Amino acid sequence: MKAIFSSPHLFLVNHYKNIVESNDIVCVIRNTFLSGAVGELPPTEVWPSLWVVDADDYERASKIITLAMVEFNADGPTWVCEGCGEVLILQFSECWKCGGLRHNLD
Ligand SMILES: [Zn+2]
Q1: Fold of the domain built from segment(s) 2-71
Q2: Ligand 1 centre and the CA of 26: distance in Å?
Q3: What is the pLDDT of residue 106?
Q4: CB within 5 A of ion ligand 1: which residues?
Q5: pLDDT of 23
Q6: How close is the Cα of 101 to the center of ligand 1, in Å?
Q7: 21 Cα–ligand 1 center, Å
């Protein structure tokens, strides 16, 4: 099992699960219900997250998700996470990788 994506928005996690599954990769969602530990753990630990069951699928699934993100907002602006440098689409207010918040959007 290996985590490939997490978000505070379950619909997004479901969205990417469907896309990954349509590529014949077995994956599951964890943390469907937020626990009372929010605020004590890093946000990415308690958000709904998508996991590939076979870690060998990780690289492929990760690429599929990145491509899907680009297509999801092909014409839209992106922002770069100050925490880890990940490029994210504007729909995300938090970095899905490290939980960093979006800044400087005036
Ligand atoms: Zn980040």
Answers
A1: Alpha-Beta Plaits (3.30.70)
A2: 25
A3: 47
A4: 81, 83-84, 86, 95, 97-98, 100
A5: 96
A6: 8
A7: 25
